[in-house]
Amino acid sequence: MKIDCTAFHCRRCGECCRIPGGIVRVSSAEIEAIAAFLGMTQEDFIARETDLAPDRRGLVLKSRPDGACAYLSDANLCRINPVKPGKCRTFPFAWQNPDSGEVCPALKALGLEERKESL
After folding, report:
1. Which domain holds residue 34?
2. Distance between CA atoms of residues 117 and 119, nearest Å
3. 115: pLDDT confidence band, cut at 50, 70 and 90?
4. pTM here?
């Protein structure tokens, strides 16, 4: 069930950056922007910071061994926020996974409100 995000307010908990099995595809333009932001060449960024997508159709950002995004700080903030990929920038407004309402506390609260209103 997609949750209405009209009243969504991010709690900066970082749970969306820890979704098990989650991947963040990056476009050529996003690679260029992130590499420049990090002071790296695009070639170095691709070699060190990306993996081939599971479907072999593009590149994804690497994850930490615990599955979290490599760019999630200890304070649950995005270390590349000014240039973060579109997938990150548009969650949960443009897309949600089926389990997003369970993973994200802010979405979970909205989903509970939606369920109360429908009763």
Report:
1. 15-118
2. 6
3. low
4. 0.85
- d(CA 72, CA 70) in angstroms, rounded, equals 6
Structural domains counted in the chain:
1
Q: How many CB atoms lie within 10 A of CB 83?
A: 16
Per DSSP, the three-state class of 100 is: helix
Asked if residue 93 belongs to a domain, the reply is yes
Ramachandran bin of 16, using left for φ above 0, alpha for ψ from -120 to 50, beta for the remaining angles: alpha
- The number of beta carbons lying within 10 Å of the beta carbon of residue 77 is 12
Answer whether residue 7 is part of any domain: no
pLDDT in tens, 21-55: 789 999 999 999 999 999 999 999 999 999 999 99
